[in-house]
Amino acid sequence: ELAGMSDAKIGAPTILSLDSPTTRWTASTDGASPPAGCGFTRVQPSPVSAVVLASGRVEGVRTREACCERCWAEALCVSSLHDAGAALCLLQTSPESGAATVLAAEVDEAWTRCEPKRADGPPLSLQIDASVPGDLLTDLQRAGVIGDPLREKNWLNSSLWSHHTWTYTASISTAQLGSRLGRPGSRLLLVFDGIKMGATVELDAARLGVAADQFLRYSFDVSDLAVGAPRTHTLAVSFDPAIHVDGRFAACTGGWDWAPYSHSYLDGAHTMSKGIWKSVYLAAVPPSSAAILHAVPQIFYRGDYPTARLEEGGHAGFRVAG
Q1: Alpha helices of 189-312 — where are they, by DSSP H?
Q2: Are the beta carbons of 132 and 19 closer than 8 angstroms?
Q3: What is the pLDDT, as a whole number, of residue 228?
Q4: Where are any strands of DSSP class E within 223-279?
Q5: Is 215 left (phi over 0), alpha (psi -120 to 50) or beta?
Q6: How far apart are alpha carbons 95 and 51 in whole angstroms?
Q7: 211 pairs with which residues across the strands?
């Protein structure tokens, strides 16, 4: 879970937090089309070798339809092979998935290839409550849509969160900012302290910008909201897998010495989850005032250049400059 990461907010006279539970956020997507059975073909008579997931050899599967269902249940499965005589089902994955593989037994004309098909028509849709700060996997687990991603093969079933565009949505009201918002010349900033990973930010269906760096704070001038009577507005953050981020996300995101490697990728690197992982807020800046968006302290050692480890209480101290 990515929640709990909090930075000091920007320096501004009036701050309105948009974090949950103060603000209700939802996450929604249009998922893949529903299953529509399988297409079945006989394997060519000449023996061939099949490469399958190490966990993709399933025994006791007596029908080709049951073998097809096994393939549907495995997110990485692209097709399956069924031997009715041996009641054996082999689940095949594409080489691009990077999954661990083993060499299966030779298959011949006794085998049937089962290729899943999807129905035409409108895709399935899904909407769940979301946490901000937070992340999508934790929200999906909390909603009962997925199991614990660190148990069994749940980590591999990544298509739901990695292959679709997820949109985080919230309704916000400028009335909560009070009288300072309506003063002539006031500025209003919408600030995201952290978004992971590539996402488009929209307010009332108008595009504000694109966030493509997990480590940056993004601020957008929304001063037009201060004009006229206070109203309720719709804020949307859409996470699109097609947005390139040039690797600007935590290196441990999808595989490290403390976590298994994922089978979701972005810009060729392993990833895991996405979400608004730091605070969101509105900052009102009255006329003749300024908002401090970024502060980078400079730290100087007061003594000579150290050539050995500094011990607590035994060094010359530090000077911090803004």
Answers
A1: none
A2: yes
A3: 72
A4: 232-239, 264-266, 269-271
A5: alpha
A6: 9
A7: 199
Kindly report the pTM of this predicted structure: 0.68
Q: What amino acid occupies position 33?
A: S
* Single-letter residue type at 66: A
Q: Helices marked H in 143-251 — which ranges?
A: 159-162
Which pair of structure tokens corresponds to residue 190? 């919408």
How far out from the chain centre does Cα 30 lie?
A: 15
Please check whether residue 159 is in contact with residue 99, taking contact to mean a CB–CB distance below 8 angstroms: no
In the numeric block, which tokens belong to residue 219? 């601020």
Which helix (H) or strand (E) segment holds residue 80: the answer is: strand 77-83
Spatial contact of 194 and 7, defined as CB atoms under 8 Å apart: yes
At 134, give phi and psi (nearest 5°).
175, -165
Q: Give the pLDDT of residue 139.
A: 93
Residues of the chain with pLDDT under 70: 1-6, 31-37, 44-56, 72-76, 94-109, 118-124, 152-159, 177-184, 251, 253-263, 267-268, 322
First to last CA, the chain: 33
277-320 pLDDT per residue, tens: 999 999 888 887 777 777 777 888 999 998 889 998 889 999 98
For residue 105, give both structure tokens: 């037994």
Residue with tokens 């934790």: 138
Q: Phi then psi for 96, rounded to 5 degrees? A: -70, -15
Q: Which two tokens stand for residue 223?
A: 């001063």
pLDDT at 111: 82
For residue 132, the model assigns a pLDDT of 96
